[in-house]
Amino acid sequence: MPGSRLILASASPRRRELLERVGLPIEVRPADVDETEAPGEDPAAYVLRVARAKADATPRPAGAWVLAADTTVTIDGAILGKAATPDEAAAMLRRLSGRVHQVMTAFVIAGDDRRREAVVVSEVAMVELDEPMLADYVASGDWRGKAGAYALQGIAAALVREVRGSVTSVIGLPLAEVLAALRELGGPVPRFAAGAAG
Hints:
This protein is α/β, with parallel strands linked by helices. It has a single domain (6-193), classed as Alpha-Beta Complex (Maf protein). The chain is built from 6 helices and 7 strands, in the order E-H-E-H-E-E-H-E-E-H-E-H-H. Strands 1, 2, 3, 4, 5, 6 and 7 form a 7-stranded mixed sheet that branches.
């Protein structure tokens, strides 16, 4: 039916899996945008800017919807992006060790004449990492391609003591918030969520 086509502007297999898990048919069209952090940029402003850029860079046929998102890890006001080397991954994890940090996911939903943007913030408490544990985790390679050098859905789940807020947002997409926004905008939603309360 019109308006039922949802384009995911992301190459993230985690975002795709979350949407497909709830029965939402999607078309994946990764957006290639510059994700370089601007000097002094606020973490929330950064993720929202990148999500907007992904949404705006994705061709959207009339009647279709685009969903774009970006996730970052932040602590002490600093943005922890994707580590490029094992040493960089270890440095990030030492900074997070035994502390509470924030994971921010921004999402943008765009239709023909409707648009919704939001930033969802979750707090994550990491266990204290000793050097052997840290070395083993870095050697696993699980940190590659992950903001903050870890992923909750991977073996790093053993490093996380507590999550306060949206667990799916930490994984890469705040499902409850995204589905509520799609429903309010008149976009496609899974059958079970069509009548859910916002």
